[in-house]
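Subject: complex prediction, re-run

Hi both,

The earlier run crashed halfway through, so I resubmitted it with identical inputs.
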Amino acid sequence: MNFLKFITKKIYLFIFSFFLSFGFITTSYAIDITIWDLSGRNGQDEFYDNLNKEYKKINPDVNIILQTFENEAYKTQIQVALNGNDGPDVFFNWFGEDSARLARAGLALDITPYANVEGGYGNYISEGLSNTTAVNGKIYGVPNTSVSKYFHYDPAFFEANSLAVPKTFDDLLNLCRDIRAIDSSIVPWPLGNSERWKLNHVITMLNQRVVGEENTAADYNLSASEDELFTNPAYVEAWQKVVDLQDAGCFQDAPNATHPDLTRSMFASQISPMIYCGTWCGGIFNGEGFSDFSYFRFPEVVGGAGAATVGFLVPSGMMVSAKTAHPEIAAHVASFMVSDDMALQAAELMGFMPSNPTKIGEMSNPTHWFNFYVNDIADKTGHVNVLDVLLEANVSNAYLDMGTEILNRTKTPQEAMDFIRQVALEAKAAM
Amino acid sequence: MNKNNTQINSFSLSNDKVSATILLVPALIFCTIFIFIPAIGTIVGSFYSYSLTSMNNWKWVGFGNYVKATQDEYFWVALKNNFIIVFASIVLQVGVGTILAAILDRGIKYGRVIFRTIIFTPMVISSVAVSLIWLIIYDPNVGILNAIVKSIGLSTPSKGWLGDPNISIWMIMITAAWQNTGFMMVLILAGLQGVSKEVYDAAEIDGATGVKAFWYITLPMIRNVLIVAILITTIGAFKVFEFIFVFTQGGPSNATQVLGTYIYLQAFNLLHMGYANALSVILLIIALFLGWLQLKSSRKA
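This time it finished cleanly. Structure:
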């Protein structure tokens, strides 16, 4: 009997404690804001830890939960997640056709109303930058950084061999030839195109330099008439420049079978004297033990329609899911990420080119590459978005495929453009 | 008494039926949720045009997606590649697996377990990990394969092992064979060990030894096991995805595209979900046919 009493008491105690704990759970009011971001950024964990701590100071009931994904996997998973009911509240995106498509499909939240509220993103970033996320006059994202691309080179090698930084595209071709003449086994400019986007960035710049951004605009957004769509012969000329680069010995053999990471290592280990690489590369080279590099812009194409002062720029940042249960808080968190202090932390910890430069002067020991990137981006007269972000999905894929074909010499520049035009016509018809 | 017995029997029979039904229900629920409903959804979706980002905007196209498939150059490339993989897998995995199994069964006296374990080991590694390792081996700049080929005085492909559209699919095949041959070997070895020694003794008296015995005794005796092995390989070859996706993502220039990667490309990169559904239905029909063949031959075996 005593045993039964003992057991009964324990059961009562269990039930009591169960309901007590349930009571605590239901009375505490916590909101989880899940953020999806790309993985692999230096200092990312520390930044998000700080973000959580700092945000709790102004809104103690909010927990910021970070989930990260590898680059290629993210592009697919975010689309699936936004269609489901278990997606993120705030998510990373590149601003271009990808982000616009999510906005048009109603999967991203219109955050225009949250711009100028207390702590809203309108207090921190310029209207021009916000407008890079606009669709039909409504704002759908908070840019927190931008990436650009530059030639990074080894000044010691250039000096030792009396090589000059190229000013024009022809100079660049000659530079490749000169480097091969010094030692034919040196790859002047390693190109890792196994994932197809590396050459896509090069052709983005060549199209700008040769065709000119004013002439490409109507083709890129498919608003040109069917008779004119991608018919400008300068597009073929731009592809021909890729062939010229290959003929000048700039690239290594088999660029389509070479991974981009390997080419970065080739430069960082000073096997190759230059590389066309993004603003994320400085930290990578430094991490691999090479920090005495310098930089130059993509050279001018003499006779081309595009200015040499225009650069490559892909704004990226955060969007808010249309399905979030807490739209106001989610938009506020996205805005808080570009607040003065957090923008400074993003620059210091992750090497971001911050969209809010208010405190950039307060950075402790900025690297030489960070200073260069920030100043040069500010100096440019205009920017072009990269084709694989900017173009309609099918046209973008056609451009990526044709890059591979051109490098493999399985298509001529003219055949490549004929194919791209055909895909563009089909995409336009389907719109 | 007889009447009572019949009643008891029919009662226990109906009890058995109830029990069987109850036991089947969980499996049926899972199959319905994870197989039947998605399959029906895929079939229905194949008659519409829509994308992941326009889930509320389905446009009826009837058999349009199927017609599109017949006119799509890359669909035929993908299908052709699937058949190439089927053929190559049968030769490399089942063929080499059979030879290895025969050697282990009767060709060597010592170290069978060690060899069997070594050959089987790649099978337990994830396909993605295997692909990543072989990516380094095939790398045109630092890969060991280039170094070996050059060291024996031969030239390497200028576009790279995985960058050349003419050879990339075969390089992927070699990796797949490296991983899967061990499994085929173990399967066939099990079949070989079921062949009675007395048959070989009798054949030896009739003058059939070595290769002759293998050709006239072993192969006919393990015919059914071989059929099952071929069908498993064929179905695996139609389902192939990871190797292609990690190695080349279907490139260069769609040269290594297979149905699995092409469906992925259409669904998630090009946003043609309806078309991807139609391609999936075609793949489903092929897989069902192969599954039916496998079931039929397994029963025979």
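Chain A touches chain B through 33 residues (CB under 8 Å).

- K.
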